């Protein structure tokens, strides 16, 4: 897999440091609350696992699975709800844990969906923010790294369900996804 990577953007150590920094910020924000922390499957799994261990406050954890890429390198523009949360968020503080905010469509979909369910507050923590990819307005409250408009994989992010298990975040060589 390493041979398919053009360059490493963030090492395992840099990711760990970002998780620690974000964990402290989130803990301060939710010090007197019990948030519902919702991980966006599958990409945010690694990040969520690491970041919640950095937060020393009570919380509930749930997961949601949405899809807009459908195995491609660009969003289809259509966000589909694959698996819903099981927690009632009405009147609750919600923290969405996302792997990457790119076009903003998925995040906008999630924010609207949870708001319509009566969430008291909704904040977003994303490992990666790609503002150059934005097609709709979407803002994160806690950001690990800002990334260039390149196709990144690793630490949960994938191309066609591969590369999620890389311990770092790297730019995938274009020939890997343009020849398919």
Explain what this protein looks like in three dimensions.
With 180 residues, the protein is an alpha/beta fold. The protein has one domain (2-71, 79-178): Rossmann fold. It contains four helices and nine strands; from the N terminus they run βαβαβββαββββα. It has helices at 12-29, 45-52, 105-116, 174-178; strands at residues 5-10, 36-41, 60-67, 80-83, 93-101, 121-129, 142-146, 152-153, 169-172. It has a six-stranded mixed beta sheet with strand order 4-3-2-5-6-7. A three-stranded antiparallel beta sheet has the order 1-9-8. The protein is globular and about 50 Å long. The model has no long low-confidence stretch (mean pLDDT 93).
Give the end-to-end Cα distance, rounded to a whole number of Å.
16 Å
- What count of helical segments does DSSP give? 4
Strand content: 25-35%
Number of structural domains? 1
CATH architecture: 3-Layer(aba) Sandwich
| Structural class by sheet pairing and helices | alpha/beta
State the name of the first-level CATH class: Alpha Beta
Unreliable spans are none
User: What is the number of E strands?
Assistant: 9
Order of helices and strands: EHEHEEEHEEEEH
């Amino acid at each position: 897999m390493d041979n398919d990577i053009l360059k490493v953007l963030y090492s395992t150590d840099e990711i760990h440091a970002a998780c620690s920094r974000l964990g402290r910020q989130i803990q301060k924000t939710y010090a007197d609350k019990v948030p519902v922390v919702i991980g966006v499957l599958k990409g945010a799994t690694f990040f969520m696992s690491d970041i919640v261990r950095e937060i020393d406050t009570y919380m509930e954890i749930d997961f949601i699975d949405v899809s807009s890429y459908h195995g491609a390198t660009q969003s289809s523009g259509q966000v589909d709800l694959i698996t819903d949360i099981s927690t009632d968020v009405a009147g609750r503080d919600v923290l969405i844990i996302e792997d990457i905010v790119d076009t903003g469509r998925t995040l906008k979909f999630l924010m609207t969906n949870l708001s319509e369910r009566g969430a008291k507050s909704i904040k977003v923590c994303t490992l990666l923010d790609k503002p150059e990819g934005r097609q709709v307005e979407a803002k994160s409250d806690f950001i690990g790294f800002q990334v260039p408009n390149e196709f990144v994989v690793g630490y949960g992010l994938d191309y066609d369900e591969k590369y999620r298990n890389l311990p770092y975040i790297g730019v995938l060589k274009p020939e890997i996804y343009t020849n398919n």
